[in-house]
Amino acid sequence: SQNSDQMENNMNDWVDPCNNFIFADTNGDYGYINRGKVPLRDQLNAWVPVPGWDKKYDWNGYVPFDELPRIRNPKNGFIVTANNKIPDEDYPFYLSLDSAPEYRARRITNRIKSHLKKGKFDSTSMLAIHSEIISIPAQILIKEIKKINFENPSYGDLQKYLIDWDGSMDRNFVAPTIYSEFRYRLNKKIISGLLDSDKADKMLNAGGRGAPAHLRTLSARFISYIDRNSTEYLPNGYENWTSLFEEIFIESCDYLINTYGNDIDLWKWGNVHKTNPVHTLSDLFPELSDQLNPPKFSVSGDGDTPHNAGYSNVSRFDVVATSVARYMFDIADWNNSRWIVPLGSSGHPGSKNYADQGYLWKDDKVIKMQYSWDVITNNYQLQIIKKK
Q1: Which pTM was predicted?
Q2: In the chain, what are the domains?
Q3: Residue 43: predicted pLDDT
């Protein structure tokens, strides 16, 4: 493709994966398209597996290419997508229910608007967005937690970690750990009220994609109702959210004390929130597991921050979803572009490049992308020569 028009038209033949595609050219044009072949189907297909032999669940062709969600050169001067829902309720076709809440997109949008207001937005500003770790749900729940007056001063002391906290999921802070345990128990309490305790446990601790995706959607819904002080999801037996929050905060702190001890410094987010990559073959060759498994890293953020580091409820708080690559493209000077991956550029466990980028990735650092051949030939470390 030589320009944005050609790029967008070339997506007509794209089949899978169906995903968000951002593009820009040196003419100053840029855009977004939800690319891929999206089947025309009833929304009944969305929730659970359906009987494929029943014709009412049949696919009836694909969403026409010209009607896929897209935008070109918006007036605000930028495009943001962070796995959030793109089309509004008026969009005529069912695409998917599995989208992330708006939190990450909102934080990115706010960062961009702030830079534009100051009249300065460059490659350094763009790279800094990758390290954005403010959690919007945390900020909402903190407002309610601040209202609690604990009779036991020990819990009041722990509450202080959140009172002046801005919602930054910093690996060096204790507050993110208290908040994350609190939110886990809040979800469990509300879902237990809607279903029962056993079903809540199954939902919270399920693996795969289905249950975690539903939980993410439900949890975001709970946050929105709490934010506007609606008691629709408040379990029976509680006068208000503050009374429920007091009980959950005490339970959360008791759990953290029993699990990590009385030394609160050990509760820092980075001590419990780590990557844990496991090579597929390490179980078959345990004697080689130290070489096969990449190193673990303490990281900031969570699943609601642009610096994405979603964790597991089963082995809390091991990171199970994160940014597999971070990019910054400079269209005016391709050699000024930057990138980083959580492992390395080689898939060979014996290579020095197997996981070397991880040590930079964990600290939000990046490396140069090399585009022009003169830069490549002057900097390459390994050349693969085709056998004659």
Answers
A1: 0.92
A2: 4-99 (3.60.20.10), 136-270 (1.10.1400.10), 286-379 (no CATH)
A3: 80
